[in-house]
Amino acid sequence: MGVADYKIISKGNGWSVLHDGVAANDYASKEAAFESAVAAASLAMREGHEVRVSVPGSEAGHGTAPGIEDQ
Are the CB atoms for 59 and 52 separated by under 8 Å? Predict the structure, then answer.
């Protein structure tokens, strides 16, 4: 089995999940992108893959920890 690597990345004014070199979906918050990545990672884990999920800290962009701009 291979490694399933999911990286939360800043994309335009939102966030995305980079997997296999593709960031196909857009999310309004870092937290929403994380939840999507974890769901996919859970399936990959059940299939026997090593799983990695990485999320940038708030200093990496968009201000707050969940990635939503302050109101």
Answer: no
Query: The whole model's pTM is what?
Result: 0.80
Q: Where are the domains of the chain?
A: 3-59
Picking from 55, 51, 50, 48, the residue whose alpha carbon sits closest to that of residue 10 is 55
Q: CA–CA separation, 11 vs 9, rounded Å? A: 6
Structure tokens at 14: 């939102």
Q: List, for residues 17-61, the tens digit of each pLDDT value.
A: 999 999 999 999 999 999 999 999 999 999 999 999 999 987 655
Give, in degrees to the nearest 5, the angle at Cα 16 between 12 and 19. 135
